[in-house]
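A favour, since you know our structure tokens better than I do. What I am after is a single protein written out in full by you. Could you add the entry underneath, on a fresh line?


***
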Amino acid sequence: MTKQIDKIRKAKYKASRLRGNSIRQGLRDAGYTEASASHSSGLGVVKCSEQELMDEIRASDISIEWVLNRLQTELAATDAKASDRIRIVELLGKYLKMFNDNNIQQAIVNINDTIDALKHRSTVDATTSQSKG
């Protein structure tokens, strides 16, 4: 026989998660003990609530454009911390698929070409300065 999920605890858990709290903190906010919250993956309230939250988000008006506009707004905010700005740029780079293997390999090739050019230039400069001396 399966356990019934307490509707009040479930509502408190979902509200806490919507405020951005972790699963563990959401369970504590819903009245679960620290021991129960630390072993949260097996709790029915977590499984059920997380699925409902994902369904609500999918059904909402949130779109890619909304997320990108929000990230750009946060990036332009004057009170944003450097770590927040770095994370925003990282997320935008991921969205633009800048970090896939092809781009990384191309960047490595470009760096190696630059290093080779610098080595060649320093060799040419060294032989030129020796022939002048």
Q: What stands out?
A: The CA atoms of residues 42 and 71 lie 34 Å apart. The first helix runs from residue 7 to 18. Helices lie at 7-18, 23-29, 34-38, 44-59, 64-76, 82-95, 101-132.
